[in-house]
Amino acid sequence: MDSSAATPIRFSIPYVSGNELRYLEQVLASRNFAGNGPFTQRVQSWLETRFEVQRVLLTHSCTAALEMSALLLDLEPGDEVIMPSYTFCSTASAFARTPARIVFCEIDERSLMMDPDDLERRLSPRTRAVVPVHYAGLAADLPRIAELTSQACAVLVEDAAQGLDAAAFGRPLGTTGLFGCLSFHETKNLHAGLGGALFLNTDDDALLNRATQVWERGTNRQAQLRGLVDKYTWTELGSSFYPSELQAAFLLAQLESLDENRAARQALHEAYLEALTPLADAGMLALPPYEASHRINYHAFYVVFPKVAQCEHVRLALKHEDIAAYIGYVPLHSSPMGRKLGWKADDLPITEDVAQRVLRLPMHNEMSAEDVLHVAGRLTAHLGYEP
Ligand SMILES: *Cc1c(COP(=O)(O)O)cnc(C)c1O
């Protein structure tokens, strides 16, 4: 297929809004760098207002937000936490460092997200938390997962690292569980270099107060700053979970461009869909299951091939032409660390199989619609499809 696209086509290029320097200069002038200053407050309020979250705490990563969730749950030996194996390692490592046992569950073959039927089989009286992962800017089956989780008297923690500004079932992602964990890593739609946020969807003051102490290195420094205590002291098992003001200022500039960023990605997404739907109709690959009633955020575009060999062939052929298409997650249960936790590959046969057939296509704000047509055209050719 002829195309004017410029190669190489990179998989992802971190977004720049253009206003970052203006805010960074304000931080330099303010001499307030270490974090939890005016820009951190502004970002937290921005997120609280925009997504109707009761309380947001900015973190230095989604990994940190997941770790805060795990700490706040006070997990004990014998407790279990259920999550998909098809996810980034941070989802698991945050809980694996507690005394709880990780229970990996299968994914749905098309959405690549937690399969509620398999969740149901794995729930037990020991289940303390369920951690669905929202993948590629789409939503996990939250109504069923939340219902099963509450029947089991467990806590729902959403890994919404990829879910900023996506919504489903009437709610923004990250606002249904007790905790929602978001990422502002440079590979996400918007970023702070590194960054994240913990959405606390609760008005339980005791829990909110504890969360703030865990966030602030395990101290009651916030109470001191507000004049409630004279000296601050070590009160909790916490860590240094928040980012610097430099990151918060950078992030505010990015957030203010959210709608623009999203519109550009939507155009790319629609170009991919249009070009690849004929292949899906011909059964040569599967596209993600988009629900018209959900608001997706166009974080990533992936396809699933019927056969592992096709997936590898297309990926390598694209690579040869300087088009970066990446595999999906390497399942955690069969990873070296997953095996140390007692899992083996055939414990989750569906995940093991599907994960090898996923190909993620380039998606970033510096791509043009021609670039998308070029990628889709080359993919079509390598798959041997002739319309
Ligand atoms: C990116 C990502 C993370 C980790 O986010 P960091 O901000 O890099 O810690 C966790 N889970 C999922 C699903 C992710 O995509």
SSE topology:
Layout: H1 20-30, H2 38-51, E1 55-59, H3 62-72, E2 80-84, H4 89-96, E3 101-105, H5 116-122, E4 127-130, H6 142-151, E5 155-159, E6 167-168, E7 171-172, E8 179-183, E9 196-200, H7 205-215, H8 221-225, H9 245-255, H10 258-281, E10 301-304, H11 308-320, E11 326-327, H12 336-340, H13 349-355, E12 358-361, H14 369-382
Parallel strand pairs: 2-3, 2-4, 4-5, 5-8
Antiparallel strand pairs: 1-9, 6-7, 8-9, 10-12, 11-12
Helix pairs in contact: 1-9, 2-9, 3-4, 10-14, 11-14
Bound molecules: pyridoxal-5'-phosphate.
Pyridoxal-5'-phosphate binds next to helix 3 and helix 4.
TL;DR of this structure?
By secondary structure, the chain is of the alpha/beta class. The protein has helices spanning about 20-30, 40-50, 60-70, 90-95, 115-120, 140-150, 205-215, 220-225, 245-255, 260-280, 310-320, 335-340, 350-355, 370-380; strands spanning about 55-60, 80-85, 100-105, 125-130, 155-160, 165-170, 170, 180-185, 195-200, 300-305, 325, 360. The structure holds pyridoxal-5'-phosphate.
